[in-house]
Amino acid sequence: MILPRSRAMRSLAPIFSFVLMVSGCTLFSNNATAVLWTDRPEVAAYVELFNTESDSGRVEVVYKEVPWLALENSADHPDLVIGTRLDSSLAIGNFAPLDKLQKKERITPSYFYPDLLAMGMKDGNLHLLPVSFSLPIMVFKAELGLALADSQLISLEELRMLCGDFNIVDDLPTRMGYSASWQPDFMYALAVIYGADFRESDERLPFWNNPNVVKAMDFAAEWSTITNGGYDIEDSFHAKYMYDPLYKLLDTSRILFTFMQIEDFLSVPAAIRETLDFRWLSDGMNIYAGEDVLYAGITRQSRKRRTAEDFLAWLFLPETQDKLLESAAFERMRSFGVANGLSSLASVNGNLLPRYFDFLLGHIPDGADIRFPNRLPESWEEARSNVIFPWFSDVTEDGETEHQLADLLRQWQLQHPDLYR
Fold first, then answer.
1. Helix (H, G, I), strand (E, B), or coil: what is residue 387?
2. Which of 116, 205, 248, 275 has the most C-beta neighbours closer than 10 Å?
3. Are 287 and 281 in contact, with CB atoms under 8 Å apart?
4. Per-residue pLDDT tens digits for 102-128
5. Are strands 199-200 and 206-207 parallel, antiparallel or unpaired?
6. How is the chain split among helix, strand and coil, in percent rounded to 5?
7. Which residues of 159-168 are buried (b: 16+ CB within 10 A; e: fewer)?
């Protein structure tokens, strides 16, 4: 199954290929070479720097489009893997405990966000180290920032109120603050804030709090009917204006907000981005991190354990991540933060990232305000994109849905047995 790549990954693909060629050309004869599977172009650049600095073992990068699935489909595993969804109950079993790194104090647990680090635990042992994660933001024109209640967060209630004040309710509106129907990923974030509690069941199947999903849908429906004047008016506005990217509509004050993940803010053209600002989408107190946490782990089959441990110990030093950020800035790589996300090391986010990404100045949230996701099935990303997002679109556009989400997911699982082991 071929999965869509992000714009950032596509733009980095030539760099990925070049670094693989350079870093791999002398590796095959080195018996201290550890093999690393990943789908992240940025990791190839990280490996190149490690190989330059290392005086012992080296690392060879092999691209795998879906690392967790490659592990399931191959009898021979690499030494290291960096990818998402490695923490599912199926995938995490492929990874060895990292007790030696801990006992030798080669990693420092206090550097990490505690709840994020705990996501890599299995049976009381640490098997995976989080590399990076994402947070959701609402983007707006910078001058609006003075009217907001908080310099860091924006709640759903404040968002809806500001949109209502901005709207011109008319049969043919010329501006509209925001509509949940524009972006299914916003609807998903809305459900998470309302307590959908998406997670993996004991049977390794998707599970969630359906009453809270219904509450989220009700909130979105009220926004459409009361704040925006109804689905017909939203449809009319959509048909007339929504042919441009939302950031362009924001720039022309056609809309008041757009939703995205923090790494996507870097993709907005610089001339427009400099006129914009953002707040972390929240319930008023908590920010809910995205589910695609990037992990690193050493496989149980690893034959180059020492080199693999050396690489992880090196990667999770703040000074290493500073070098990686500096190198990416020097090379003008269009990638955000650490491996296209916020670092799992709190000090890197607080002290280093704003130096390289000035739009983060004054915006780094307190770790205590971040809520990290539950463990989810390894195929959740595909299910979310192919089933859940379309279902949310049906609900917000029609006000009701013919099929229940659970039924649609079961049908999709039966059609994709390769993704459920």
1. helix
2. 116
3. yes
4. 889 999 999 999 999 999 999 999 999
5. antiparallel
6. 50, 15, 35
7. bbebbeebbe
